[in-house]
Design a protein that fits this description.
Strand content: under 5%
Number of domains: 1
Distance between the termini: 43 Å
Keywords: Antioxidant, Disulfide bond, Oxidoreductase, Peroxidase, Redox-active center
CATH topology: AhpD-like
Catalytic activity: N(6)-[(R)-dihydrolipoyl]-L-lysyl-[lipoyl-carrier protein] + a hydroperoxide = N(6)-[(R)-lipoyl]-L-lysyl-[lipoyl-carrier protein] + an alcohol + H2O
EC number: 1.11.1.28
Radius of gyration: 17 Å
Subunit structure: Homotrimer.
Shape: globular
CATH architecture: Up-down Bundle
GO molecular function: disulfide oxidoreductase activity; hydroperoxide reductase activity; peroxiredoxin activity
Length: 187
């Protein structure tokens, strides 16, 4: 079932973020309303992606506005799984991005020795967790993780448009967070 952001409180969170954006970021205002407010993703995929990306954005303002809506729109296990996706990808994105960037490829042959159990048992549909992990990986800029999660999603039959929606949400939330944090420092 696909849903659109329709609850009054959902709109209020988006409206508050849009109102906080400066006029020069008008495109971000429009994109925020489009990627979240008019999303055709199922509720759990949408709000799990929003929450994981809000955490990954490192923006206090974005997280403060979007977290209550995510909590209201997600079952407790999905809420926790979205937070887990942000947490585990914060670690994995650094580790695997580093392996990719190092010219000495021997590091890639070494055992990582890092616990990643939540990836195998996230407590929600595997596709949803993979989508959230992909979106966080987009924010954190890990090409190896992006490729890995995209391949899992495609093998599971997820359309490219759904995958694209996740990284569009990531792009917009990250841009809103960067803009609001910059405005707070410049004020």
């Amino acid at each position: 079932m696909r849903t659109r952001c329709s609850r009054a409180s959902d709109r209020m969170a988006l409206d508050a973020l849009k109102a906080a954006l400066p006029e020069y970021a008008k495109d971000l205002k429009l994109n925020l309303g489009s990627v979240i407010g008019n999303s055709e993703l199922p509720q759990q995929q949408l709000w799990g992606t929003v929450l994981a990306c809000a955490i990954a954005s490192r923006s206090e303002r974005v997280l403060a506005e979007l977290e209550p809506e995510a909590r209201a729109n997600l079952k407790p296990e999905a809420y926790d799984a979205a937070k887990a996706a942000a947490a585990i990808m914060a670690m994995n994105n650094v580790y695997y991005r580093t392996l990719h960037l190092l010219s000495d490829k021997e590091y890639g042959t070494l055992r990582a020795g890092l616990r990643m159990n939540v990836i195998g048992n996230p407590g929600v549909e595997k596709v949803d967790f993979e989508l959230w992990s992909l979106a966080v990986s987009a924010i954190n800029g890990c090409g190896q993780c992006l490729d890995s999660h995209e391949q899992v999603l495609r093998k599971a039959g997820v359309d490219r448009e759904v995958i694209q929606t996740a990284f569009k949400i990531a792009a917009v939330i990250q841009a809103v967070g960067v803009t609001l944090e910059a405005e707070g420092r410049l004020a």
